[in-house]
Amino acid sequence: MNDFHVDHRQVRRHFGAAARSYEKHDALQREVQTLLLDRLGFYLEEPARVVDVGAGPGRGTALLKKRWPKAQVIALDAALPMLREAKRHSAWLKPFQRICADATALPLPDHSVDVLHSNLCFQWIDDLPALFGECVRVLKTGGMLTFSTFGPDTLKELRAAWAAADGQPHVSRFLDMHDIGDAMINAGLRDPVLDVDRFTLTYSEPRKLLEELQGLGATNADASRARGLAGKSRYRAMLEAYETMRVDGRIPATWEVVTAHAWGPPPGQSRRIPGGGEMASFSINSLRGSRRR
């Protein structure tokens, strides 16, 4: 399903470096956050614990705390500088907590989370079985997972412009909605619902898009990327190729956004395993007393 690998150290380093500039460039992230907040309307309970995975500078976490002020709300991010910035959005009287950790190794007890939320973070994780396995592990039965991620058409213009300049991967690749949905089902998540929206942002020149990506920390994290600078001639060739794509005098940049939600399964619900077949697991306590005498 996944033929590429993400350089996680690169992701952590670049997002850490962009912590202070992130909110100057996050118009799209705020728009997608609105879509996720709409999905949370399907959750009708009063949660005790809400976790924002890949919280970045914490604006989305603050909105979750505002929505559920009595809940324990946790901002979790792999980049420590982002969490330092998130303190600015944490209210003095009703603060949210901050934890530095990876999404594939959540430092949370089994079945302890009511709502697991993530806005435009999962695209930086290439091990979907580990990611959604962790989601299943920490979610309570009937708990809600809601997230957004980028699809393969994201930055297709920039990718095409670089392809015209050289054959090296300069833009991160992203998985198709169907691959994501299959991984959710394989992990045992219940009733997944996925949608795709496409946003087109425009710029006066290609350099403005590149500056925005750098300000967000959303630079190429493909492990197979070429190291070192691209070279002035190839960089100019990319800019010239991008210039041919102007529409109404503006440079377009497409963002394909997948939004999804699903529910925590009951104990023992089976999950698919590599090679075919399914496996279910139960706690030892649930099996006590079932043996005949």
TrEMBL record:
Pfam families: Methyltransf_11. One of its GO terms (molecular function) is carboxyl-O-methyltransferase activity. HAMAP family: BioC (MF_00835). Its EC number is 2.1.1.197. Residues 51-146 form the Methyltransferase type domain. It comes from the Bacteria. CDD domains: AdoMet_MTases (cd02440). It catalyses: malonyl-[ACP] + S-adenosyl-L-methionine = malonyl-[ACP] methyl ester + S-adenosyl-L-homocysteine. This is Malonyl-[acyl-carrier protein] O-methyltransferase. Belongs to the methyltransferase superfamily. Pathway: Cofactor biosynthesis; biotin biosynthesis. Residues 282-293 have a biased composition (Polar residues). NCBIfam families: BioC. Keywords: Biotin biosynthesis, Methyltransferase, S-adenosyl-L-methionine, Transferase. Residues 266-293 are annotated as: Disordered. It comes from Rhodanobacter glycinis. The lineage of its organism: Bacteria, Pseudomonadati, Pseudomonadota, Gammaproteobacteria, Lysobacterales. Converts the free carboxyl group of a malonyl-thioester to its methyl ester by transfer of a methyl group from S-adenosyl-L-methionine (SAM). It allows to synthesize pimeloyl-ACP via the fatty acid synthetic pathway. GO terms for biological process: biotin biosynthetic process; methylation. The gene is bioC.
